[in-house]
Amino acid sequence: MIGSKCSLTAIFLVMTFAAPVAAQSFKPSKPIEAVVHTGPGGGSDIFARAIADMMEKEKLLPQRLHVVNKSGGGSATAMAYLAEKKGDTHTIGFFTGVWVTNPLTTAEAKVMVTDLTPVLRLVLEPAVVAVKADSPYKSMRDFVEAAKKSPGQLKQSGGSVTGRDNLVRLVIQKATGTKWVYVSFPSGGERIANLLGGHVDLMVIEPQEAGEHIKAGNMRVIAAATEKRLPSFPEVPTLKEQGIDVPVIPQARGVLAPPGITKDVVQYWEGVFDRFTKTASWKKYLEQNQFEDGYLKGAELNKFLSALTVQMREVLKEAGAKVVR
Predict the structure, then answer these.
(1) What are phi and psi of 70, to 5 degrees?
(2) Rounded mean pLDDT, 95-117
(3) What is the pTM of this model?
């Protein structure tokens, strides 16, 4: 009997002290900052705002997700801002591949992805090559031939020099022996405006960022920078189909948190996005924007980021970029 009473007492004590721990699990108590590295109209800005709107529609958060634009230095400004928020439970960041590549080529970029807290990967995103609707270039092969005849005369608008759009340019130039100019703009809106205004000749862009302009007939897609043709552009051949054999540069989008975040905060966001990715709103968004569902978290996410860093380091070296790390 004494043994039984002791056991019951022990169970009671465990339950008594466990309850407050469970009650202390994280829940946002004020608006959450969602940091992106692009200005308004850029791919990450559009992506984050779409998620914020869907989160609100689905009532998945007790507080508003507020997008904060920290453009400049590729991804360096955004990553430094997130790193400075060490331990801040009400800040997250939406990463892309440039968060991996920028620190590899920029000595001034002091923060690596590994210095932040990985939360999850959401999607893998395709890229297309687009020109103005009345452009003389009907294919990427046409553009390459024109670039050979006029080295350094044609122009491509884009974002960070360590972003995917420039990496695609570098590997194509190396594979075809061509040269054209890369003009970097801080916002997606400026990149598109310069193409539509005839100030540049070409863009490498994500379907979600160019979608409305393509539908309106202002832009024309001349190549898919993918392994297979995209369902939304079945008539557009891939670069490889056009005789341009280059590696496909992956573009992943996901969520990071500041350093020093406790496990319960990470678990909170995992739970929120677990529910979010099952919603009809998100599934429709994936389909409309030609995203591949790339949901990863935990150890698998860490493995992916490590492998991506190795791959991008090799792609940069192969393309002739100076790698500092």
Answers:
(1) -125, 70
(2) 93
(3) 0.79
